[in-house]
Structures are given as C-alpha cells and as structure tokens.
Specification:
The complex is a heterodimer.
Chain A (H helix, E strand, L loop, with lengths): L1 H30 L5 E2 L13 E8 L6 H18 L25 E8 L4 H13 L5 E4 L3 H14 L2 E4 L16 E3 L4 H16 L4 E7 L2 H16 L3 E8 L7 H9 L4 E5 L3 H12 L6 E2 L2 E2 L1 E6 L2 H7 L7 E4 L8 H14 L5 H20 L4 H8 L2 E3 L7 E3 L6 E2 L2 E6 L10 E7 L1 H4 L21
Helix pairs in contact in A: 2-11, 3-4, 5-6, 8-9, 11-12
Chain B lengths: L5 H15 L1 H4 L17 H24 L6 H18 L4 H23 L4 H20 L2 H5 L34 E2 L2 E2 L3 E6 L2 E6 H22 L1 H18 L5 H25 L10 H14 L6 H15 L5 H7 L5 H12 L6 H15 L3 H23 L5
Antiparallel strand pairs in B: 1-2, 3-4
Helix pairs in contact in B: 1-8, 3-8, 3-9, 3-10, 3-11, 3-12, 4-5, 4-6, 4-10, 5-6, 5-10, 8-9, 8-10, 11-12
Chain lengths: 456, 402
C-alpha cells in the first residue's frame, strides 16, 4: 500500500509541473506567427530546389557485413568527389556516356547522407525513411544483403524515389521482388550458376556427384537452385542439399556426413563469415586430399569476394567461384577506378565498392540524360540502356526486370598470392550471352515491376 | 473525467498535448541550420516514438507490475506484424482489420507462451520466454511452416510486403500502375501536411496521428489497469507471490492475464508498425529486439506510468539521430577550430556517434541504472522536488504573485 500512496503523491507532483508545462506549450503554440506558407506542390518526392541535391547511402556499418559496408561507403564518397569535379575523375573518363561534366548533377552540387542498415530490414527501412523524409534524399543506394535490398527497394517504390541496389546477389531482387523504381547492377545467383557450370565441366568432368551446404535463407536457396540446375544440366548429380543456420560458426557436424554420402564435390552456398568457417572446416577435415569415385575431391564456392578470400587465407587456393568484378581486370575502366580508389585509400577496392560506385555514376548519368531528377524520367533513361567503360565491358540495363547484363568472372583462389589483396585469379570471363536468361525464367517468376512512382 | 483520479487525468492530458504538438516540439531547429541534424520531427521517427511507446507501456504492465521479466516480447510484436500484413494481402489495405488481427493473434500466441512459461518464475521464466521467442524467430526466418505446406507464411529472410498481385478481396482492384498503400478509409498513412514558418518546417503526418491516438488509448488503459484491483493483485504478485499463494489465492490467472495483455500491446505495436510501413521481416522478433524493450522500460522507469514511453523515445532517438552523424558532419561542426584541435575533437566525438551510437546508449543506460535506479522518471521527480523546494523557500521570502 505504501508504494501505491507514494506513487500517487509523485504523480500529483508531476502533474503540477506538467500543468505549467502544458500552459507553456499551448502559449507557444498560440504565439506562432499566423502567416502560413502552404507547401508548394512538388512534382515528385524531394524535388531538389536549391543549389544541391542529396543522395542517401544506406550501408551496413555494424553487424556481419560491416566490412563490405565500409568499403561501399568509401566508393560512394569517391563517386561524389568525381561527380562534383574533384579528384582525377575515375571512371567518368572511361564511361561511354559523356553526359556528366564533373559539375555535379544537372549543375547541382551533390551532397550525401549516410545511415546504418545493421543488415536488418527494419533498421534499413527506418534509416532510408529518415533520409527521404528528413534529409530530402532523392535517391537511396546501398545494402549488402538481399533481404535488406528487397525491403528498401519496396520502400523506395512506395515513397517515390529511386533505389540503386548495392551488393545483393539473390535472384529475387530482380525476380519475384522486383520494383519499377529499383535497379541492380550486381549479378545474381542464376548468372553465377550459368557461368560456373561450363568451367566446372571443363575442370572436373561431367559425371560428378555434388553435395550442397546452403545458408538457410533466401539468398542461399536461390544460389543452391541456380547452381544445382546448371550443373545438373551438364550431367552432374546432386546427392544432397543440406541447410545450415546462418548463425552457425562451426560446420564440422555438417562436413562429416559429406564423405559418407559418396559425393565427390562439395558446393558451399555460403557468404561472408559462413563461407570462411565452412571452407576452413572442410579443409581441416582433409576433404581436399581425399579420393572419391576415383576422382580428387573438390570444393566450389559460387559467390566469391576478396574479403572472404582474405578471411579464409590459404584454404581458398585452387577453389573455383564467381565474382562480379575484380580489381585485377585490365580494361581501362577498371584500371581508372582502381587507380583513383587506391590513391585515396591506399588499397584496391572490393567488388562491393565497385558496384556501388558504378550505380552512383549510372544514376547521375541517367538524370543528366533525362534532364530531370523525377524518378519516372530516370527509370525511362535507365531502361534498356546500353553502356560501356565501367569495368564489366558492354552492359545492358534490361528494361523488363531492371537487371544489368554483363560478363561474369569465374575466379580461382590463387596458388601463389603476391600480397594480401592478390588472392583471386580470373579463370574465365564468361560472355554475357551465356548468362542471359528470359525475364520469365522459372527462377525469377512471381513478381511484377509495376510502374514507376514519382511520389508526391 | 474518464474515471481517472485528478493526478492521473492531468498526466494523461499532458501526454495527449505532448503527442499532439510533437511535430513542433521535436523540430526545434530551423531546417537549414546545422542543428537540424538533431530534429526528430519527421514522420517515420515520430511514428516509431509512439509505437515503441505502446510496446514499452504494455511490457511495463507485465514487468513493472508483476515483476516477471519476459525476454521474448518482440516475438509478439513480430506475430502481430505478420498477422497485419496478411490482412493487408488477403482482405484490404485499410489498417483497421490489420490492427485488430494483430492484437487478436498476438493475444492468442501470448496466451500459449504464457500458459507454459508462467509455470516457472524468476530467471527460469525469462529463459523460457527467450527460448519461445527464438524458436518463433527461427520459424519465421526460415519460413518453416511455409516450406512444410509448400507456400509462404513469413517469407523468410526477405519478409513480406503487400504486392500488386495480392487478392485483397474487400478492395476494389488497383488502378493500373498504382501501388498498394495502407490507408484508413481512404486517408493514406503516408500523407502529410507540411507547414513552413520562417525557416522551420513542420510535418503533420496522418499515420503519426493515428498511431498517437492508439498510443493514448493504450496509455489510458494502462492507467486504468494500474489503478484497478486487478493491478493491485499484480503488485501483490511482485511483492510476495508465495505469501499470496499461502493465503489461498491462485496467482496464475492474474499473471497470465497480465502476460496476455502485454502480449496484445506488443501485437498492437506490431500491427501499427505494419500500418505505417507495410513490410515485415523476421529480425523484429530477434532476441535483441526483446532486449530493447527491457532497456526502454528500465531506462524510463520500471513500474511508472510514463517512464516506458520516455525510455522508448530516448532509445529510438539515439538509434535514428545519433547513428546518422558521420565524420563529414563532425568536420563541419568543428571547422571553426584550428586544424589540430578540430581533429582532436572530431576523433573524440566520433567515438560516440555514427556507428558507435551503441556506446553512447550504453553509457547513458549505465549512468541511469547506477544513479537513477527509478529511471528517467526518478530524474524528473528529483528535479521537480528540487524546484518545488526552492519554490517554497522563495514563497517564504516573497509574496506570491496572485
């Protein structure tokens, strides 16, 4: 009882203070100037009216993909520098479109805001929303996970701003969850499978028995499906496909049954820390020294990144995988990008950095060509747009699903790395024709772009 | 009025006025000034303030009154969200069925979880709720039920969103090219009225006021529960459950009711989250989300009426405002200083903002727990006492104005 009384007393004290406060607030409200300027009707969400335009960089700064996020942010800052005419201009000089002059976008200085997605779709959407509602961002870009990309892409569609996806590899981003206001430059699971299969057939023959370990989430499923169907098409047999929890750090219990299964190839549909751990476990179990069915046991990692290769160390030697871009590419665009990134930060960029940099340039270029920041004008300028000089050779932004079609790199862990960045060697550049698919391919079914949204 | 005591009524009125004028109060700085970084008066964050306020108020009914510390309340929030989004996919984009369904489904699930977990108390209860929540998170994250029945229930990692192709049997078909948007009888949640006064810009958002109305109702209900005989029973559970049992009272129906009520509050918050932002992902059920509501409640003041709302506000403010201050922003702040000095200040400040906002939150949480065990409410109370005391002293010396 004593407690109760005390609380009542407290409340009455609070309320006395509160009455004063209420009075103050009300009088402040009444004292406001009576000249209200109704907001002028904007043609689209966050139409930039001043001398600058704001872009939103929404990347994971904490959580499992923080490394990728940090690299993405570096690339964005570099892109802003180049757009505003500072630095050496990077890929602006090699880009096939010459619309960008280095004087910002449409003459407006480019500014940016950053946010932390925490690799969670809720946090990513909250941060993107604050960029749109508070900072007036006219384009959102970033993300290092497909769940986040899909969530933010849908948000941008509703809000009426453009979303330029960062590192997202799942088929669904431009498949069943595609949106008219969203664009993806990065490649996807299907392309990985299609590019890898012929190389694998060449290297390991066409009568292998594969065992899949798959990260238990959306990206894992689409990757497993893509690799399975492309390898089965050339004669491989899939012995088993086992899901592993995303939070798993020790994969020994998943590796042990592999040898009993009679499989002679292990496919690790893992990314980031998962892949580092599972590959390390597999090598420790001596899988790679085993002989099964009269063949050397092999391991394959469908999606490779330099940061992962670094984490797995010597274990990646000789292991095949695919990647969107690699800094050792010799074309003009890649070289220009590596040069300016290296000068600014002192090390070569990752594929995440590359795709984010390119996406920013592509957006700016589309705005410049369209002559407007209006999302629908940008969508029109990007759809079925062909360009070159951004590091992946001739590339098409397909209008049917807003996916970029370009060559895919098949890479292998280098036997004799010369530095901590020189871990992968390019085995083959799979031509774009080989990884192109129909927009209604079964792996991409079930979605619709809808039509572009200009928002307010 | 409202069958409330005078003190409670004035508290309710204060909260109502504060939420009504939040677009002004949270936007104290002109839009173009450097300080506008600290403005919180934009729709998304204001919605989050009131929605997580509801979540924390509900949690406080369980934790503050009975002392049962649930570590799995985010699961009910998530369940509510999934229920709401399915209503939007199947029935209508109107938020009313979505919100009703979220409360009902969260109530049912929390009844099940509470039925089992409340067999134990103390740390065992906490662990049980945590286990349930993580189970439900895993079910949602890998969409186990969806996989079992060959469909989609939670959408796994990518979650669920309303799509153009969804059935929505109560709605007229969408115009070609239109996107499904959540609305209340035609009033879209995203629609805002913007008011420009001099350099200030204030945004009045429909969704915010709907969520704020729900929060006021929830808050009113929580006051009534706190003051009711039922609330007294719950307090008795907290002070000595054993003695209560010895007198022949079965406390389980009371604790279970409290558990279900707080679960329904969480469901309401989840439903509102979906109404404001039509998307749901499994992460909102993760155990860290459950931990967050515990922190909100403790930060604000366990067992006090207004505390949880304050705690929710502080935590969400940190998460959304501090985390966006990056190095570039700091450089403009300290640019007036000489080079070496500004570098020094940037380096120090940078430790506490941007991606390190957790550090600041942690420090504040520690300070509150150590020096203000009653939370921010106790801080306010102490300040109030001090002012009152000095006011009284002044009264002795000077004549009152009236």
């Amino acid at each position: 009882m004593a407690d109760l009384w005390e609380e009542n007393m407290v409340n009455s004290k609070l309320s006395r203070r509160g009455v004063l406060k209420t009075g103050a607030v009300t009088s402040a409200g009444l004292a406001l100037p009576t000249i209200f300027t109704a907001q002028s009707a904007a043609a689209y969400t966050n139409e930039p009216t001043g001398s600058s335009v704001t872009l939103g960089f929404n990347v994971p700064q904490t959580g499992p993909y923080a490394d990728e996020g940090a690299d993405e942010l570096r690339a964005y800052q570099l892109a802003i520098e180049h757009l505003n005419g500072a630095g050496d201009g990077g890929m602006l000089n090699t880009f096939s479109s010459k619309a960008l002059q280095g004087n910002g976008i449409l003459g407006k200085e480019v500014k940016y805001v950053t946010g932390d997605t925490q690799t969670k779709s809720d946090a990513a959407r909250a941060s993107a929303k604050s960029m749109i509602e508070k900072d007036g961002a006219v384009m959102i870009t970033g993300g290092s996970s497909s769940g986040v990309a899909v969530a933010v892409q849908a948000l941008c569609q509703e809000a009426g701003v453009i979303f330029m996806a960062g590192l997202t590899h799942s088929n669904d981003t431009t498949g069943k969850d595609k949106r008219a206001n969203g664009f993806r430059h990065f490649f996807n699971s299907y392309m990985s499978g299609a590019a890898l299969a012929p190389v694998l057939a060449n290297a390991y023959g066409t009568d292998r028995k594969a065992y899949h370990l798959t990260a238990d989430y959306n990206w894992g499923y689409t990757t497993e499906e893509a690799v399975k169907s492309s390898t089965e098409a050339m004669g491989w047999e899939t012995v088993a496909a086992v899901k592993t929890p995303l939070t798993q750090t020790d994969f020994s219990s998943y590796i042990a049954p592999v040898l009993q299964s009679g499989a002679d190839t292990l496919v690790l549909n893992h990314y980031g820390g998962n892949m580092v751990n599972s590959l390390t476990n597999a090598v420790q179990f001596g899988l790679r020294d085993k002989q099964v069915n009269g063949k050397d046991f092999q391991i394959i990692v469908p999606l490779y990144s330099r940061l992962m290769a670094k984490g797995a160390g010597a274990n990646v030697k000789g292991i095949f995988g695919s990647t969107n871009w690699h800094w050792s590419l010799q074309d003009e665009g890649s070289q220009a990008f590596v040069r300016s990134f290296g000068t600014k930060y002192g090390f070569p960029p990752s594929q995440a950095a590359h795709t984010c940099y390119v996406q920013t340039l592509l957006y700016a270029d589309a705005v410049e060509r369209a002559g407007s920041f209006a999302p629908c004008a940008v969508v029109e300028a990007l759809e079925d747009y062909e360009f070159d000089g951004l590091g992946n050779g001739k590339t098409l932004y397909r209008g049917a699903d807003h996916q970029c079609f370009k060559d895919v790199l098949v890479v292998k862990g280098k036997e004799n790395p010369t530095s901590e960045f020189d871990l992968l060697e390019i085995v083959e550049v799979t031509p774009v024709g080989q990884v192109t698919y129909d927009p209604n391919h079964p792996q991409f079914q079930g979605g619709a772009l809808g039509s572009c949204n200009n928002g307010a | 009025m409202f069958k409330l005591e005078k003190s409670d009524l004035s508290l309710l009125i204060i909260v109502a006025v504060l939420t009504l004028f939040a677009p002004f109060i949270l936007n104290p700085f002109p839009a173009d000034s450097a300080m506008s970084q600290f403005n919180a008066g934009y729709p998304d964050l204001m919605q989050r303030f009131v929605i997580f306020g509801i979540f924390a108020v509900g949690f406080n009914i369980l934790f503050g009154l009975t002392g049962y510390l649930s570590f799995g309340h985010a699961a009910f929030l998530g369940v509510g969200s999934y229920a709401a989004i399915w209503m939007m996919k199947l029935l209508t984009m109107n938020v009313i069925p979505a919100i009703v369904a979220s409360v009902v489904v969260a109530g049912l699930i929390s009844f099940l979880v509470g039925w089992i977990s409340l067999r134990r108390s103390g740390i065992y209860f906490s662990i049980l709720t945590l286990a349930f929540a993580m189970m439900m998170y895993q079910l949602a994250y890998s969409d186990l039920f969806g996989q079992l029945f060959g469909g989609i229930l939670t959408g796994g990692e990518t979650g669920l969103q309303p799509k153009v192709a969804d059935p929505r049997i109560l709605d007229a078909p969408l115009d070609p090219g239109a996107n499904p948007k959540a609305h209340l009888f035609g009033l879209e949640m995203g629609s805002s009225f913007k008011l420009d006064i001099a350099g200030w810009q204030f945004t009045f958002n429909a969704g915010y006021y709907i969520a704020a109305f729900a929060m006021l109702c929830a808050f009113y209900l929580s006051i009534r529960i706190f003051r009711s005989p039922f609330g007294m029973m719950l307090r008795a559970v907290k002070s000595n459950q054993q003695r209560m049992n010895y007198t022949g009272l079965n406390s389980k129906p009371y604790t279970l009711a409290a558990f279900v009520i707080s679960g329904m509050y969480a469901g309401l918050a989840g439903g509102l989250l979906v109404a404001m932002d039509t998307q749901v992902g499994a992460e909102r059920m993760f155990w860290t989300a459950s931990g967050e509501v515990v922190i909100m409640t403790i930060l604000g003041g366990v067992g006090s009426l207004i505390g949880p709302v304050l705690g929710a506000g502080v935590l969400k403010y940190m998460e959304n405002i501090l985390s966006k201050i990056n190095k570039g922003v700091l450089e403009t702040w300290f640019s007036f200083m000489p080079d070496g000095m500004s570098d020094f200040f940037i380096a120090i400040t940078n430790l506490f903002v941007g991606k390190q906002w957790h550090i600041t939150t942690g420090v504040i949480f520690m300070l509150v727990v150590i020096y203000l065990p009653g939370g921010l409410v106790e801080g306010g109370r102490r300040l109030g006492n001090r002012f009152q005391r000095s006011g009284k002293e002044r009264q002795n010396h000077t004549k009152p104005a009236e």
